[in-house]
Amino acid sequence: MTQAEPDLNAPTASTSYGRVKPAPENFLHPQQHLKAVTVRRSFMAKALAAGAGVSVSVGAARAAQGARSNATSSGSQDRTQTDDPAVLNLPAHSRGLGAPVATLGYGNPSRFERNLQRRESPGLTRIGAASVSFTPLQSLFGIITPNGLHFERHHQGWWDVDPTQHRLMIMGLVKNPKLFTMDELMRLPSVSRMHFIECGANTGMEWANVAVPTVQYTHGMMSCCEYTGVLLSTVLDMCGVDRKIARYVLAEGADGSSMTRTLDLPRAMDDVLVAWGMNGEMLRPENGYPLRLVVPGVQGVSWVKYLRRLEVGDKPYYSKDESIHYIDLMPDGRHRQFTSLQEVKSVVTTPSGGQVLLNKGYYNISGLAWSGRGKIRRVDVSVDGGRNWQAARLESPILNKCLTRFNTDWTWDGRSAVIQSRASDDTGHVQPRINQLRATRGTRSIYHNNAIQSWRIAESGEAFNVQAY
Amino acid sequence: MRALKGMARLALLAGLFSWSLLAAQVYPAQVAAGPAISAKVNGGQDTSGRVKARPWSHLGREPTPAEIRAWDIDVRADFTGLPPGSGSVAKGQEVWETRCESCHGAFGESNEVFTPIVGGTTRDDILSGRVASLQRNDVPQRTTLMKLATLSTLWDYINRAMPWNAPKSLSVEEVYAVTAYILHLGDIVPADFVLRSDNMAEVQAKLPNRNGMVLQPGLWERRGKPDVQGDACMRNCGSATEIRSMLPDYARDSHGNLADQQRLVGPLRGAQTVKATLGSAAQASMAQASAAIKQTAAAPLPDDAALARASNCLACHHASNRMIGPAFKEIAGRYRGESAAPQQLAERVRNGGQGVWGAVPMPPHPNLNDDEIAQLVRWILAGAL
Hints:
The complex is a heterodimer.
Chain A: H1 30-67, H2 85-88, H3 92-95, E1 132-133, E2 152-153, E3 167-172, E4 178-181, H4 182-185, E5 191-198, H5 215-219, E6 222-231, H6 232-239, E7 248-253, E8 260-264, H7 265-268, E9 273-278, E10 281-282, E11 292-294, E12 307-313, E13 328-329, E14 335-337, E15 345-350, E16 355-357, E17 361-370, E18 376-382, E19 390-391, E20 393-394, E21 404-412, E22 417-425, H8 434-441, E23 454-457, E24 463-468
Parallel strand pairs in A: 3-12
Antiparallel strand pairs in A: 1-2, 3-4, 5-6, 6-9, 7-8, 7-12, 9-10, 9-11, 13-14, 15-17, 17-21, 18-19, 18-22, 20-21, 22-23, 23-24
Chain B: H1 7-17, H2 23-32, E1 40-41, E2 45-46, H3 65-71, E3 86-88, H4 89-104, H5 123-128, H6 144-147, H7 151-161, H8 172-185, E4 194-196, H9 200-204, E5 213-215, E6 243-246, E7 268-270, H10 281-298, H11 303-310, H12 328-334, H13 341-351, H14 370-381
Antiparallel strand pairs in B: 1-2, 3-4
């Protein structure tokens, strides 16, 4: 610091401590302020003088644009770089004023993300009110599913239920039956837990053969959220479960289907939530607003939406969706009943079916792994159809009955390849191949297909859904 | 199953389930269970039924008996919860023709939209309790009666969820009657049969698939053991890999243009599956998707079509093809130029109708208000574009 320059941190003559000063000029030392004003004026003059030249160079860049290929966006390694008009031509958003705050009271994704939609699989179901829409896993990052893209499964249409009129009744083999309003439920001590939810029929179209093209349809009946609610054990303890004879809990929804599913009491007292929150906001109507059951590790049908009643009993209930549907047909013609656990499973989401690699070189193979029995312990990835494997990096967090994101490096040499992932959980269960599953369960089970998924990368760069073993 | 708090309520409700086979086993035990031994299992959970004092214990209130009756509608496999009553096959046919047939077909075979309820079972199955056709791979559809192992399930489901667009609107007699009619269509009970709360168990013993279920505790219990284990081999595993299954070329566009289902930026693009030129798929898809997005951003779904979809019109009607009901195009064609048509059709949408397009009735739509109906009719008459 020279003598000529003042100490900018020293108090000025006008400084008076303990007094609020107007912003912004008085935050600068008077000399600093003077300098800033001078520089601003000189900048304006120079800009005016240069004006004509700027418009000429913009015109030249625009002329060059037509002749230029899309080399930059396709990641070309070409040494003879040409000027990118995306750099040279300042776009409107660099030259204008953007939108003010709260233009959207509840924000939306960019309009350029419109390709990410929940979609139905044509021909799978026949009526929209008893159907499923699939989450676009191919385009999601990390482990949390945005609420608007959470998969949907409705048995009798969905409703936007008035939360002030919603009630939860707990009755049956309890000492004190209870009726709760949402006000009362939301006063109870709550927890927030991250868990995956997977439909028991996820990947069900693929038991016998490949049936659908992309990971959205093979694995998109699955989502993962941070749920907020009260532990079911807290609620049941308030009611005093008769543990000598109580063995089961029936959960029932308030919608037209009045979905009913049986839970066993040990699970009900373990980690089941009566939830109203989903990724920091209330549940979405399509996902059971204002109240649903969260049954970690268990197929989605048990996560009863619009939850209105819990009955404690001594026997299972044999409801429609545990007697006619959600039963697994075995090769001997009998159905397995009360199968509900979602076993260890994984899938590569990038690259995956229906995607096209842009050119040779480096790719990050990325995917999701989960287990209804616990935590993911490891994920192995193969690029030669299961002959050789290497361990993938597991990204944190690695949580109980929650999606785990995995990544691994891969350099594509332009030849065809078959990419697979294989997860193991902390109980030692290793994800099986489809032929291993079929040896025991046949091809008609519909439910609980946790087979290793294969994506064939063709020489064209396009990825195809295949079964390879 | 009815919840009971004490002897008084038991006495009050005793008449309701005196017919129930297992009521005698369940309720006395339930009533007897009071504050007893305080054994601990599962990490200190109270096993006695004693309610622990918690700071939040005062929240919630006891439901009234009428509230419990209103919601406690489940019927268990042992028929606990089944209300006393009866319904005949003949009465069931009446109910069927007005409330069920439009979706499930005259004989439970259902139409092309809903899966069939009846079919695929034989007299031998009724004797053995195992549906033989389930062991074959050539059976196109699994009907409800092929799978049903517990009669209570059928009764409970009809009672809670049917008819589809007006659930919980059937009387107890109608539920018994419809259940009886379905059983008759499956040759399980004769045409003059009356299903009653006290002969449900007899019919249960004739269900074709009553012995067709097995339990798989490994896929149910909290610490269940898996039945299929993968292998953890890392090097030179198995024999040479073969591609055993892939989508045929003709199915390439079965899910639309995949290019439109992928993000516009990132390491990959979506494959162009509708107008396929694979070599330049990436660039083509990006340009096309960009253009499509600009277009959809400017012109969202027409409100009329969205309303038709949200109102479930499209469950039975298609723009150009006949499904359960006539195509919108057919309707527009028939009523073209008729000035009374809007009012006439609005009436048909509001209150339902039958006979104009065949035997399948159009159900009433109390869920739609007059403005919505007028909008839908206008749209349909204009060609449903």
